[in-house]
Amino acid sequence: MNSLFESIPFAENPLYENIIADILSKQYSIIDNFFTSEEVLALRQSLLYKYEEDTFKKSAIGNRTNEVIKKAIRGDIILWIDEDRANNAETMFFNKINDLKDYLNRTCFLGINQKEFHYAIYPEGTFYKRHLDTFQNDDRRKLSFVCYLNEENWKPENGGELVLYLEDVEKTIYPFPGKVVIFESQVLEHEVKPVNTPRLSITGWLKTR
Ligand code: OGA
Ligand code: MN
Q1: pTM of the predicted structure, to 2 decimals
Q2: How far apart are CA 49 and CA 113, in angstroms?
Q3: How far apart are CA 27 and CA 166, in angstroms?
Q4: Are the CB atoms for 100 and 16 separated by under 8 Å?
Q5: How far is 147 from 92, CA to CA, in rounded Å?
Q6: 205 ligand 1 Cβ < 6 A
Q7: What is the rounded average pLDDT of the residues 118-134?
Q8: Which residue has its alpha carbon closest to ligand 1 atom 5?
Q9: Is there an atom of ligand 1 within 6 Å of 100 CB?
Q10: How far, in Å, from the CA of 192 to the mean position of ligand 1?
């Protein structure tokens, strides 16, 4: 008789193992080419198409924040992505996310059973001040995920660096296309520096109930 375990082969995934080791040792992980340039292109086209349809909203902080205060904290505009109505590019995106999520649950028993993702555009001159990704007494966000959809020729001078405030240093991350940054939502304060050229991304969270 076959054992149960023999019938469910489990292949270690070196990329995911690296991500897990990074997060365990330093609370974040950077993956330079999580998405291929073709995948980035498809996601960027999807973002721009929806932007032209005018469905993006100015982001909110909490729910009763006044517009002036909000603009002084963050200036991006966002659009939540509905997995149930995903287009081809978004389906590819969620397939990759779900694969990673399932691996994390299987190997680290994280118990992630919810997720939320949105497109984000930072127009010229906007930023997002230093913050934690836990709002309104909501501690369900466990892992933050950012993926950059900028053009191939993105340059450091374009601004919009993500800065992670680690215990003793600041880690500066340039938003090059295809790069993914994953970090612990409840512990790592971070900031998006002012942008000189419109900056495109998808941001999201893996959550527990
Ligand atoms: C956020 C955020 C970081 C980035 O949307 O909460 O911190 O690099 N984004 O876009
Ligand atoms: Mn954030």
Answers
A1: 0.91
A2: 30
A3: 9
A4: yes
A5: 14
A6: no
A7: 95
A8: 203
A9: no
A10: 6
Q: Is the CB of 133 under 6 A from ligand 1?
A: yes
Task: Name which of 130, 133, 141 is nearest 164 in CA terms.
Answer: 130
Residue 204 backbone dihedrals phi, psi, to 5 degrees: -165, 180
Q: Is 203 in the pocket of ligand 1 (CB under 6 A)?
A: yes
Q: pLDDT tens, 4-13?
A: 555 566 789 9
Is 185 within 8 Å of 96 (Cβ atoms)?
Answer: no
- Amino acid (1-letter code) at residue 69: I
Mean pLDDT of 148-153: 98
Residue type, 82: D
What is the rounded CA–CA span in Å between residue 186 and residue 96? 23
User: 14-61+68-202 in CATH: which number?
Assistant: 2.60.120.620
Which ligand is closest to the CA of 203, given by its number?
1
Residues with Cβ within 8 Å of 166's Cβ and at least 6 positions away in sequence, in order, are 26, 27, 188
**Ligand closest to CA 131:** 2
Taking the alpha carbons of 63, 170, 176, 96 in that order, is the dihedral positive or negative? Answer: negative
Q: Indicate the top mutation candidate among 203, 205, 206, 207 to test ligand 1's pocket, ranked by most ligand atoms within 8 A of CB.
A: 203
DSSP-derived secondary structure letter, 57: E
Do 201 and 162 meet the contact criterion of CB atoms below 8 Å apart? no
Indicate if ligand 1 lies below 6 Å from the C-beta of 162: yes
Q: How far is CA 60 from the centre of its chain?
A: 17
